[in-house]
TrEMBL record:
Family per similarity comment: Belongs to the bacterial sugar transferase family.
Protein name as catalogued: Exopolysaccharide biosynthesis protein
Native species: Limnovirga soli
Keyword Membrane: yes
Keyword Cell inner membrane: no
Residues spanning the membrane: 6-27
Organism superkingdom: Bacteria
Organism lineage string: Bacteria, Pseudomonadati, Bacteroidota, Chitinophagia, Chitinophagales
């Protein structure tokens, strides 16, 4: 399923998104089209997670989580983030085998270290490949986590997904994600 869906996304969406967003990103701000950041993957193996760049270049990108009305987010970046279009390059990560379509979202290394030390069973969420979308995201726990309980809830939803995984659960998550985008 990962190979089929990521191949379809790359051929039918990224084939036109990359040139279009490349032009728009370059017109909006200086810097590369893609944002690459090392993230914690399956078994805590590091990989380069790809996204369309939605922020100005900054020194805080590996330590400070994006927030609502973040001064670093560009005008185009706000649109990309709101529609989740910034995440589409992660289909290349899926095709490369670093990620799955569905699974716990990959976190910054700094967050893996911080939450791994403070949330019980946090590291269990790294027993499977991280996903472009996940149970926690469609359950309302995506984006910024300003308080520890928010990440604890996200982790509990990730662990529920691990314990209750099925093909049909993945289909449900994918359908809800598509519905949320549109």
């Amino acid at each position: 399923m990962d190979i089929a869906i990521s191949s379809i996304a790359i051929v039918f969406f990224l084939s036109w998104m990359i040139p279009l967003f490349a032009i728009l990103i370059k017109l909006d701000s200086r810097g590369p089209v893609f944002f690459k950041q090392q993230r914690s993957g399956r078994n805590n193996k590091l990989f380069w997670c790809l996204k369309f760049r939605s922020m100005v270049l900054n020194e805080e990108c590996d330590s400070v989580q994006a927030s609502d009305n973040d001064r670093r987010i560009t005008k185009l970046g706000a649109f990309l983030r709101r529609t989740s279009f910034d995440e589409f390059p992660q289909f290349f990560n899926v095709l490369a085998g670093d990620m799955s379509i569905v699974g716990p979202r990959p976190h910054m290394i700094a967050h893996t270290e911080m939450y791994g030390a403070s949330i019980h069973d946090y590291m269990k969420r790294l027993h499977i490949k991280q996903g472009v979308t996940g149970w926690a995201q469609i359950s309302g726990y995506r984006g910024e986590t300003t308080e520890l309980w928010q990440m604890e809830k996200r982790v509990s939803l990730d662990l529920w997904y691990l314990e209750n995984w099925s093909f049909w659960l993945d289909v449900k998550i994918i359908c809800k994600t598509i519905s949320a985008i549109f």
